[in-house]
Amino acid sequence: MPSPTSAKYWSELKDLSDNVKLELITLLSSSMTHPEEPAAKPRKGWASRFAGVWKDSRSAEDIVEDIRAARTANTFDADL
Asked: 35 vs 6, 23, 24, 28, 40, CA distance in Å?
């Protein structure tokens, strides 16, 4: 059951064209969402905090070999 307020607005809006109703839906929806915060600017030197963190008993060559062996072909059929 619509509230008296929404019923009042509906009585005024129900005869509008579908396009106008869609525009109103868009405007109402956007008024309810908050814009995303801008992404933070990357700081210089951020990667240095990771230096020396990786611990592994394998040699670099073994790690590279494991990475290459784990690769998969990313192929799929696409109907264009």
From this structure: 26, 19, 18, 14, 15
Closest to 67 (Cα-Cα) out of 77, 56, 52: 56
CB neighbours of 13 closer than 8 A, spacing ≥ 6? 21, 24
Tokens of 53: 């963190």
d(CA 42, CA 40): 6
pLDDT digits (tens, 9 = 90+) for 14-71: 899 999 999 999 888 888 877 676 777 777 887 888 887 778 899 989 999 999 999 8
Maximum separation of any 2 CA atoms in the chain, in Å: 74
* pTM, entire model: 0.39
Structure tokens, 40? 């933070």
